[in-house]
Amino acid sequence: MSNTRSRGENVSPANEQVTASDARRSVAALLERGRTMTTPVLRAAVDRLAPPMNTVAAYHFGWIDATGRPADGSGGKAVRPALALLSAEVAGAEPEVGIPGAVAVELVHNFSLLHDDLMDGDEQRRHRDTVWKVHGPAQAILVGDALFALANELLLEQGTTDGGRATQRLTVATRKLIDGQAQDISFEHRERVTVEECLEMEGNKTGALIACACSIGAVLGGADDATADALERYGYHLGLAFQAVDDLLGIWGEPSVTGKQTWSDLRQRKKSLPVVAALAAEGPAAERLGELLAADAKNTEIGEFSEEEFANRAALIEEAGGREWTSQEARRQHATALEALNGVYMPEETRRNLLALADFVVVREK
């Protein structure tokens, strides 16, 4: 299905403004719609897994607690499912058409979280113990692998050419995501990482899958490759904005809101954007930070540092300008994402919703 004006759709410019209150209501409704429409299909997919993987996955998604009793965990922000459903609407299809893509992307995203938590040694996610902490490393690995397999299974079950196109895009995005995680891990043991290297890593680790979410519903709805590619560009830069905000929260986020430890990314030696931007700056704060990180590269006992030491490092990053640069980068990537929508014809309401979700990404607190 070619995405052209011939369908008689209303079109609005990409820079159309909506009020802050309208945007908040719109985003809340979009996230809830994404969660409501995809959760039953997601649960049914998880039910296909053999025990105990099905219950381990259910714990990860927040549906049960560590003892197996029902729980009311949200399972995340549901940004990717919301984008996938909107993507279907760009193609002129009903949002339901995007459900298999939304669920597939969510399965891949959670496959990466299960593995990342184990590799990073994260003990908390969404205000509770991570899967590897509760059920052991082996189950975290197995369930992650199973979720990835389920994602491809769901798309291929569509039995259509468009289902195959969607599977191909998801597979490429997954490979890039894994590339990004490998880059992220390698950066932890290097004294210096350039800003360009960090953006490439984050584009792979975060941008690729959000880009896929933004195109996969349109592909399932029959959109041509030019439309899907434009939506992927929107999603890629939105993903970079998303990750820039995540990097800020990883250092300065409020634990009661983020569900992670104070100074979370500093504890893991992450060369995130605020860190690499600070190191690239000039001045005594950047020099002192560089000295500390050079010493870290030879020290495997970073977990023994005091809270005061982490607070000092965060202060050095801020003094060197890393915090402000990253905040500005989030806004730059946000603007680039919106530019990608220029020339893509879609219903006026769908465009407003894509703009509102992009705004949400750069102002969130968790």
From TrEMBL:
<protein>
    <submittedName>
        <fullName>Polyprenyl synthetase family protein</fullName>
    </submittedName>
</protein>
<comment type="similarity">
    <text>Belongs to the FPP/GGPP synthase family.</text>
</comment>
<dbReference type="InterPro" id="IPR008949">
    <property type="entry name" value="Isoprenoid_synthase_dom_sf"/>
</dbReference>
<dbReference type="Pfam" id="PF00348">
    <property type="entry name" value="polyprenyl_synt"/>
</dbReference>
<keyword id="KW-0808">Transferase</keyword>
<keyword id="KW-0460">Magnesium</keyword>
<feature type="region of interest" description="Disordered">
    <location>
        <begin position="1"/>
        <end position="23"/>
    </location>
</feature>
<dbReference type="InterPro" id="IPR000092">
    <property type="entry name" value="Polyprenyl_synt"/>
</dbReference>
<dbReference type="InterPro" id="IPR033749">
    <property type="entry name" value="Polyprenyl_synt_CS"/>
</dbReference>
<keyword id="KW-0479">Metal-binding</keyword>
